[in-house]
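hiii, so i know i said id send this last week but things got crazy w the move. better late than never?? heres the sequnce for the chain we talked about at the cafe, plus the structure i predicted for it. fair warning i was half asleep when i ran it
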Amino acid sequence: MMKTNFKIMSAGFVLILTVGIILFITGCSEKMTPEPAIDNTPKTHDELVSAAQAEGKVVVYAVTSRIANAAEAFTELYGIDVEATNLKDFELIEKVSKEGSTGVKGADFVLCQDGGRVMGELMNLGYLYNYIPPSMKEIIPADFQNPLSFAFINKVFIYNDEASPEYPFTNIWALTTPEWNGVFQYKNPFQEGVNANFLTMVTKPEIADEIAAAYKDYFGRDIVLTTPNAGYEWIKLILENDLILTTSDTKTAESIGIKGQDKPNNAGLFVYSKFRYKESKNLALEPIMEMNPFSGFYYPIYALMSSNAVNPNAAKLFIEYLLTEEGFKPWGKNIGTYSSNPNVPLQPGDQPMSTWIKILVEEDPAYCFENRADVEEFLNEYIY
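okay and structure toks below
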């Protein structure tokens, strides 16, 4: 494969630099990283409302535009003004990091994704901290509490089912064959952190072992590696098979799902929430729910407090509100976004998280933080 003479300046460089910063700070005196003055004294709901209304405002940064609708409803309910800013995941991380390192007062809390960078660059350095509303401690599953997951998003293998309702493939290794050359679509991992995290996760040893077993199931022989493990090998071979790297999951869904195409194979890995376009945009879309060894991946959107919060009580009240059925309405009106509160109902026809967890790869923030730089360096050999 022909390669360029330069490599993409990616988030991997940022991660490597960040590790160095963390090690430097760890070796410095405690005065360099003072513990934030955080008041986590438990309050009843009524006490929290009174304290929040006395502050009168809350500032939130979010990776989801639907925060605006939630903010409007929150203000109407409690009379507390909300200043909400919608940012891309990397923009939010960079903004919170800069404000945290300089002491600038910015967000009171954030809704953020890209777990590896959030943990390594924001939580480990004390810029963000975890808070669980007391009213939610017995409702939100313990596995979703540290750090607090506000919601989950899933990305699933989805195909155009107009010509046939049968799955076009049920093993991820099919994507490395000539039949799927130049037709499978996936959003560029250098343009969205969670996509880079998924490719990092497939290199995790236990998942790579499953991928190796799936190879033998598909080809009838043991895999011969030219890379560190079967996860890396799968990444290499789908890229060499002319994987189409897109810039938008919306555009991917529209490209794949448009009706009247004369393509026997047409599929991609993108957010399941785009499945709503099947009706609203008259697209032919169907998820592949029986894939070996996985049907896609899922990742959390975290709700985390800022150590620099000017309005901490209003932030805590808003987090509590977002975890309720009413607070989740802006997201719950469509399929494909799932509250961490199991009591929040699903849209008709959607699947519960208990189903998705069984068939999707889970994002592991610690593994992603420790290994994504290596995976991105590997990706740079093929993406230019």
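btw Residues 181 and 241 are 5 Å apart (CA to CA). thought thatd interest u
miss u guys!!
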